[in-house]
Structures are given as structure tokens and as C-alpha cells.
Specification:
Layout: H1 49-61, H2 66-84, H3 92-124, H4 129-134
Length: about 140
């Protein structure tokens, strides 16, 4: 039997409670209250598989658990975002232009160094075939 109005008994029932010979059912209150001061657990949805694997591998290589890795590395990254008001790209697609510029710069530096070594080799080369075959005359 469902009671919608409180009884005038000593233990009045509230809306939604049922009365049985054993005892009234408790009210449904949603989530149970937390008895401990332990931090809440998180569930993060929408993390791509590549991202998850990368984070797990990075945590393993740094010798940390995932929790330690998030506490240290993610907190540092978030603090940097808040300080700089600039969020670094998080995905490979976002990094493409930065990576292209970095590779282009490194290639130019490498080409410049190679060109310099070629110029130096040209300056040291023999002036003629005779000098190349027999060396310089003294």
C-alpha cells in the first residue's frame, strides 16, 4: 500500500514510502551520502585510444603510476596554460604546422652546415690534375 500523506502515528510515513509489516521502506534520495573524506573518483569519457596509450606509456617510462603522472604532469601543464593563457595543441593534427616549421628550420641549418663543408673542401682542392696526382711542388 502506498501512502501519500503522513499518518498521525508515532512514525509518520513520508510521500513515496510504503508500509509493510516488517518496516517502512526508506525514501529514495538519489546518490548515497559519502561517509569518508576521500577525494571523489573521476571517470573521463571521450579519451581517444591513442591518447590513452600515449599517457600510459609516458607514465610507465617515467616510473610513475597513472595517478602520480596525472598529479604531476597534468597539474604542471594546466598551470602553464593558466599562466600563459595559451593552450598547447594536444593532438597530432594540431601539431602538424608546428612540426613542419621545426623540421624546415632543422633542414635549413643542416643544409647550411653541409654547404659550408663543401665550400671548405673546394678551397682545399688541388688547383690542377697534376697537383692532384703528384701533390704541390715545393
Amino acid at each position: 500500500m502506498i501512502i501519500n500523506e503522513p499518518n498521525s502515528d508515532q512514525n509518520p510515513l513520508k510521500v513515496g514510502q510504503t508500509k509493510t509489516p516488517e518496516s517502512p521502506t526508506p525514501l529514495k534520495t538519489g546518490r548515497p551520502t559519502r561517509d569518508t573524506l576521500e577525494p571523489a573518483r573521476w571517470t573521463i569519457r571521450g579519451i581517444e585510444t591513442d591518447t590513452r596509450l600515449t599517457i600510459e606509456k609516458a607514465a610507465e617510462r617515467s616510473g610513475k603510476t597513472l595517478g602520480q603522472f596525472f598529479n604531476i604532469e597534468l597539474r604542471e601543464a594546466a598551470a602553464n596554460v593558466l599562466k600563459k593563457e595559451h593552450q598547447p595543441p594536444a593532438r597530432g593534427e594540431d601539431l602538424a604546422s608546428d612540426l613542419f616549421e621545426k623540421i624546415k628550420t632543422e633542414l635549413r641549418e643542416s643544409q647550411a652546415a653541409e654547404l659550408q663543408s663543401i665550400r671548405e673542401a673546394i678551397e682545399r682542392r688541388p688547383a690542377s690534375l697534376r697537383e692532384w696526382l703528384f701533390g704541390k711542388r715545393s
